[in-house]
Amino acid sequence: MSAHLHPFHLPVALALALAASSATADIYRYVDENGTTHFTNMPDDPRFKLYMKTQREPSPVTETVAQRNYPLPKADRNKFHGHIVTAAKTFSLEPELIHAVITAESAYNPLARSPKGAKGLMQLMPATAQRYGVENPLDPKQNILGGAAYLRDLLTMFGNDLQLALAAYNAGEGAVTRHGRRIPPYRETMEYVPKVLAYYKRYKSSM
User: Fold this and answer.
1) For a Cys-Cys bond, which of 59, 74, 101, 129 suits 134, CB 3.0-4.6 Å?
2) Active site residue 191
3) In terms of domains, do 112 and 173 share one?
4) Is 51 helix (H, G, I), strand (E, B) or coil?
5) pLDDT by residue (tens digit) across 41-88?
6) H helical segments located in the chain
C-alpha cells in the first residue's frame, strides 16, 4: 500500500488493508499547508494523527471483506425487481447497481426513514425527491425511478466514475466537488462506497 493516500483512494486501500490484516488496520491523517488531506495506514511523519481505528478478528484466508462486513439482507429482492429493471433501462444503468444501492440504503424496506429525512428504498432526501418529480418517496416505483435518475445524473456529472457517483449519492455532489472531486473524508461515506461496490460485485456474479 502507498504510504500517503488521498481520500479518493481510501475506500479501496482500506478494503485491502482489512483483507490483508488479521489484526488492525488503523488509518491516520493530516492536513497540509495547502489544505490537502493525506491518509496512511503506516504513519512515518509526526503530523499524522489517528483518524479511524478498525479491529478485525482472525478469519479464513478465503473469506472476503464483502462476505464478512457486508452481509446481504434477508429480503425478497424479487418483489421490487420489475421496478428496478424498468428504472435501469430508462436511465441506462445496470439493475445490479440499483439493487446494490437499495441494499445499502434501506435493505429493501420501502418505508425506511432516516433521522436526516431520507425516505424509501433508495433513501431520497426531500429536495432530491422534488428535483426528480417524486411525489411519494414511500411508493417503491416512484422512489426507484427517482433514485435511478439521480444516480445517472451523478455518473454523468463525475465522468462515469462510479466511486465518485456513489460518494455523491451518500454525501451530496457538492461535498465531492468541494473536496476536489474526490471522496469526502467522512467516515460514513468512506464506508458507504466500498459497501455498495461489494454488493454490486456480488449481485453481478449471482443474479
Assistant:
1) 129
2) no
3) yes
4) strand
5) 677 788 878 765 543 333 332 333 333 457 777 777 889 999 999 999
6) 10-20, 65-69, 81-90, 95-106, 126-131, 140-157, 162-171, 173-178, 187-206
